[in-house]
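Minutes, methods subgroup
Present: GH (chair), OT, SY

1. OT presented the first of two proteins processed in the latest run. Sequence and structure tokens recorded below as shown on screen.
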Amino acid sequence: MVTHVPAEAPGDERGALLAFVEAQRGALRRSVRGLDEEQAASRPSASELSLSGLLKHVAEVELSWLRLAQQRPNERERDESTWSEGFRLVDGETVPAVLDFWDQVRAETEEFIRSVPSMDATFPLPPAPWFPKDGQVSMRWFLLHLTEEFARHAGHADIVRESLDGKNAFDLLGLETGQ
């Protein structure tokens, strides 16, 4: 989605990175604009992805990376037996509830990033075959990774939404901004 994403002030790295993360969050959140729960949960393509499932996934991904950066346990950590539940709403979950949860995570992420002494501060990567053994990443990397993750899934959301009703990201941005 082509939009201008300004930093809060010239030279404000934290503000700029947080703004890019928020721009991608906005694209994902807009993907469900005007849809009911059934539409948001539908899967109009061969993919198993739905818009509501994507929202839940990215909210939980953000929480997971935030807890890694904070070096705290993740209260919503998934394992093999619950992995697929991270991509669909279950047990009475709703789109508004997922968005509210994501708002809480967003606020906590911003508060945490604004409180770290330096964007160069690091935290350990989790053990995984795709990460280097004993790898460390910076707070900067954390925000860049969230931007990457959200942008990837915003693209998925664009395709799913357009398949549902023909509305694309520009249409949804226009609806949101009244243009």
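2. SY then presented the second protein from the same run.
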Amino acid sequence: MFRFFKSIFTKTNLISEEKDPMKKYLIVGLGNIGDEYAETRHNIGFKVLDEVAKAHDFNFETAKLGDIGSFKIKGRTVICLKPSTYMNRSGKALKYWMDKEKIPLGNILVITDDINLPFGTIRIKTKGSNGGHNGLKDIQLFLATISYNRFRFGVGADFGNGKQVDYVLGQWNDEEKETIAERLQRSTEVISSFVLAGIARTMNQYNNT
């Protein structure tokens, strides 16, 4: 009998947590769909979320405007989104799932590549310009603000004049491949810290590491 009532209360608590918007988080990894983009620098957002899925043992499923997966951590529901809209329309997918799941702006984290940071450098910010990044431009347009959390993963800028597009759509070099596994592991820690400790503590602990 005790087990019966315990199971009822446990299910009720889980449902109430899921309905509480402050206990739900949306992590959006930016990238382009298709095998030809899978191992490119521009797809680091997808790559980080694939690592998060491994760490928390969940799968992505194809849904409206993207692939969706989720996991729970200490009473919080974390929804991970890989938009299928291609980089230039990332904002459309983010806004759709933000509204559908009723997730507050402060509980959203966008993972993006950044050529202004050395390879593997992590920098978390609560606001800022789009820096010419087309994915961030579209997100800014749909959210109508530059004040949203973003996790910038440095990919370096080892390219010549007019070669930026080729560089970000290019694959990791041998040196990068040797260290990216550790950087991805570190990135999963960033996600957990954002959800459990908040954005300010996460910035203090992980920025420029």
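Chair's summary of item 2: The longest helix spans residues 174-197.
Next meeting: continue with the remaining queue.
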